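Researcher: I'm preparing a figure for a lab meeting and need a structural model of a single chain. I don't have an experimental structure, so a prediction will have to do for now. The sequence is pasted below. Please return the structure as tokens so I can convert it later.
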Amino acid sequence: MSGELLINVTPSESRVALIENGLLQEIHVERHTKRGLVGNIYRGKVSRVLPGMQAAFVDIGLERAAFLHASDIALHNEVAGEVPEHHFEKKDIRELVRDGQDIVVQVVKDPIGTKGARLTTDITIPSRYLVFMPSVTHVGVSQRIEDEQERDRLKSMMSGLEGEGGFILRTAAEGVGENELIQDAKFLRRLWSKIQARTKRKKVNVLYEDLPLARRVLRDFVGTELDRIRIDSKLAFQEIEQFTGEYAPEFHKLLEWYPGERPIFDLYDVENEVQRALERRVDLKSGGYLIIDQTEAMTTIDINTGAFVGHRNLEETIFNTNTEATQAIARQLRLRNLGGIIIIDFIDMVDQNHQRRVLHSLEVALSKDRAKSKIHGFTALGLVEMTRKRTRESLEHILCGECPVCKGRGSIKTVETICFEIMREIVRVNRAYDADKFVVYAAPTVANALMDEESHVLAELELFVSKQIKVQTEPLYNQDNYDVVMM
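Model: Understood. Here is the structure written out token by token.
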């Protein structure tokens, strides 16, 4: 499998595209005025304790107060001066925090929709090979490192690093020597000391910010097989060159400055792929298609055979469509960065063996995804329930806003419905007030309908109310906007 990273940097935003086998698999977008908050550490103040929810709202200087649940309070608070302990027992939120208390917290989920950021006091700071955890003393190893001998080797090398805090060895640490791990550990402890020093400064709110997008992606991609990394900004190239030289030397030789006149994302049709990732419908090569609907509570994916009629029988056609759909679903989840609860409505399969094979195909397709997911199998209604870890906004939430016409409903009233509403409004106003005539101001589509296909109904209404009704076109009106004015 060939992989390539394209990094597009402008004064207003940075974008990183992961290309695998010539096809866009992931797109990361960061607006420089709206950088993601995940990983940032803040000195916050508890603004409100909610016993009924076993949670607290914490002011960390954002537009909306952030949310801290009792289960996410696991670290002693240096600012508040509590006695250090590695883990709190299950206690009432009122025993853990109080109104007005200063507290050190880290963002684990960005604000999404109407929800504020999600916080934890269990601080973790990642580097190239390690994740530092100030609140514990043990050493853990990533589950993706499966070789037991390698796991034991890594743990033994970390055994001499006694001191404050514990570590998790990341997947990228596999095969790494002791010196590299020691340097990483020293760097993380120095960084934590600086963060602790900043907590003493009363006016400091932001204690630590995660890396900018391009460097953060490279840090998280350590261990991923890449053929090259292209960057279209000379300044960004120099910054990343310095960063990889220090933290990710295996990527250093892969860096290329791309000075071409053709936009870097046009090399692999990325712009069009991003546009398609914002649409509800995803066409399959066989003729079938997916319908993806994202709501605040969950994401639903519906599979349809469409024009695919198959060559053998109906059951084989359904099975082949569902199997093909698993590959498309896994790609769309990564590409759109969809997380939380996901419900998949595969085409009904009678054969249980087919069901098992489709689930296995979905598991294999999702294994390439760096975000953790869990498939819960078929429900009694024949739906597949799964979850995918969500920390940042989806692609749609980053690039799109609420439709000013439908206000997020996804549909608007038909022209016929608006015409009948207007007629009912005329009758209502005529009964309540004394008017000589009526003027209807409506959008062009509605005004044309009133004067054309609904003209006979409008004429009957004039006889019914014994008043003249004039229709006026308003080009700036949306389809469901209208005014009925008495003259």
